[in-house]
Amino acid sequence: MATLADVARRAGVSPATASRVINGSSKPVADELRERVLRAVADLRYVPNAHAQLLARPQRSVVGVVVHDVSDPYFAEVTRGLQRVATDRGRLVIICNSYRDPERELEYVEMLRGQQVAAIVLAGSGYHDPDFTARLTEKLAAYEATGGRVAVIGRHEHPGDAVMPANADGARLLGAELRRLGHRRVGVIAGPRELTTTSDRLAGVAEGMAATLPPQRVRYADFTRDGGARAAAELLDAVPGLTALAALNDSMAVGALTLLRARGVRVPAEVSVVGFDDMPVAADVTPALTTVRLPLVELGARAMTLALEPAVDRPRVEVLPAELVRRDSLGPAPA
Amino acid sequence: MATLADVARRAGVSPATASRVINGSSKPVADELRERVLRAVADLRYVPNAHAQLLARPQRSVVGVVVHDVSDPYFAEVTRGLQRVATDRGRLVIICNSYRDPERELEYVEMLRGQQVAAIVLAGSGYHDPDFTARLTEKLAAYEATGGRVAVIGRHEHPGDAVMPANADGARLLGAELRRLGHRRVGVIAGPRELTTTSDRLAGVAEGMAATLPPQRVRYADFTRDGGARAAAELLDAVPGLTALAALNDSMAVGALTLLRARGVRVPAEVSVVGFDDMPVAADVTPALTTVRLPLVELGARAMTLALEPAVDRPRVEVLPAELVRRDSLGPAPA
DNA sequence: ACAGCTCAGGCAAGCGCTTTCCTGGCAGCG
DNA sequence: CGCTGCCAGGAAAGCGCTTGCCTGAGCTGT
User: What is the dihedral of CA A227, A228, A233, A236, to 10 degrees?
Assistant: First the structure.
């Protein structure tokens, strides 16, 4: 690997001069020398060692992002927003997948700190786990103490800049709509119990329906299609007379739809289904899913924006509103 | 930010000793000193500066990945495979989105080189652009010349390790199936013209149908739902008597389905639709898409594996087979 | 008791770069 | 013609870390 010294030698100048022309320093350099340096760079295919640069000039330009899983459509959308802003600002993004493993999340924060990243964005639900939360907060505080910036998406517990999807509000909208259409016996297909996203949405649905949800009408499962199908099956078997299934994300709702079709249950004539998130797939299934739209790209974009802005004394918390999207999978409750 | 020197000072040892206990060097260190160092590390929340470490001990542990767009489900899957292997091997992954911009791709390769990454994986179709291809090959060669490893996914032009989806084979399967079911007037909804993926699949379809495709039966559009819908509309309007629409990826097929439904055309009774890739959505739409499955996760996993293995003299090229997935959107051609 | 060994721990070089400060040559001035 | 001032270019000091090599203390063996 060619080094700056190699370039300087070949151009017959000092490393200082070479560095200056390569970085477009403000210090003037005679055209002839500049020329020679540039030619040497080209000849040697020289690319500066980013690590050496970062050591010498501690100007952190990369930002770290920890998500549950980029390949999950939810995070894919959020990440798109994150990336857009970062790229616009000339920042490189390191994406880390925690796969919903709190330990791994902790490790990544540590590692990102070691990478001297300018900012860390934590995307994705928090956990109902005080011990973990404390450790995380501690680590983030240590990072921030050294000038690092942190922004989180959808984590109430973090005492800093945050952008929050209106999970509870959106769920309330959904609950109210179910109630308006006469649904009284609603099964809820919930996500993993330990996620705050799950509990927020769950609470919102109940509130919107102006009812308490008996435990047997709630099934917790993975936030996936298959999880949704399984939970739907259990719910249908366990609770007779259900008129609607509220899935706490769209993947699960799609799973429920699949199961219902397999069982020959008509949607929404016999059983209605609603989802959450308004993923692209929601509009493509049949019947098209009634769901709640979350501005996912915007969520990511705002979080990155906050992360790249200098800290202010008071933490900024932005809540991005949810919106009910009426499609075909929700109808009036059968008489 | 606490440095190793701080830790050493606080522990009352030399930086050398501190470094050794922190990295678990083979050199023995007395328990008492070790203890003191560890305590200092904890007290100061010390995390080694990864850049300084990389400078001092040029042991590259991160790998770079350039994809068109992680949020695209196709690449989300591929990325999942890439990540899995990388993580298993203890490697950090830097993901770069080129957004199908060749220039950006070039820049990223350069940047990754500067980051001293251990390997670069280029995922995603190549371009029909000899100039770009030459420049890219040149840059990659420069990188490899300094010990970097490169693996590509689905790019014939790269003279090195590669893993290839069987685009042409899969398309041939699809074409043959269309033919078998009596379809003779088939419209093709193709992806961007400049992508090799598009031309490979297009050629395969024609070959499988044992027919040449008149230009007016092919429409090029973005590899998206909307692109698919638009192309489908154009095709339907331009070519009367079409019995099937072959989209060159599933998103476009879904778009076509949507358009057909909007126009009240029954699928597959009046017009059949086929897709490509077997994305999760393919099974969820109605009618479920007949498509070709590509082992996307595996594609990523293999590519990363190749990239992390030492180079061998002869480039390795692995072709991962495609498989026809029969569902409901393809039926016999109407009489 | 002393030579010679072992071994824990420290010194210092060096990774590739940036940047401050200095130098030496030149023009401009008195 | 000599002095000052200016400026392009270079020397060198780090940035934070690892590691080869050296040192000196404590042993062993005779």
Answer: 140
Surface-to-core class of residue A306, CB atoms within 10 Å of its CB (0-12 exposed, 13-18 middle, 19+ buried): buried
Q: Do B225 and A286 touch (CB under 8 A)?
A: no
Separation of alpha carbons B181 and B164, rounded Å: 29
**Interface mutation target, options B63, B95, B105, B251, chain A, most CBs of A under 10 Å:** B95
Residue A268 preceded by cis peptide, ω within 30:
yes
Task: Say what the pLDDT of residue A277 is.
Answer: 97
| Angle, helices B225-238/B250-262, rounded to nearest 10 degrees | 60
Q: Tell if the CB–CB gap between A93 and B92 is shorter than 8 Å.
A: no
Report CA(A313)–C1'(C7) in Å, whole number. Answer: 54
Assign 3-state DSSP to chain A and report helix, strand, coil percentages, each to 5. Answer: 45, 15, 35
Chains A, B: CB contacts within 8 A come to 122
What is the Cα–Cα distance from A328 to A290, expressed in whole angstroms? 6
pTM: 0.89
Which pLDDT tens digit goes with each residue over B64-110?
Answer: 999 998 888 899 899 999 999 998 998 888 888 898 999 999 999 99
Q: Between the CA atoms of B24, B27, B28 and B31, what dihedral angle is there, to the nearest 10 degrees?
A: -40
Choose among A48, A51, A70: nearest Cβ to B79.
A70
Residues A57-106 pLDDT 10s: 877 888 999 999 888 889 989 999 999 999 899 888 888 889 899 999 99
Nucleotides of C under 7 A from a protein CB: 7-12, 14-20
DSSP per-residue letters across B79-96:
HHHHHHHHHHTT-EEEEE
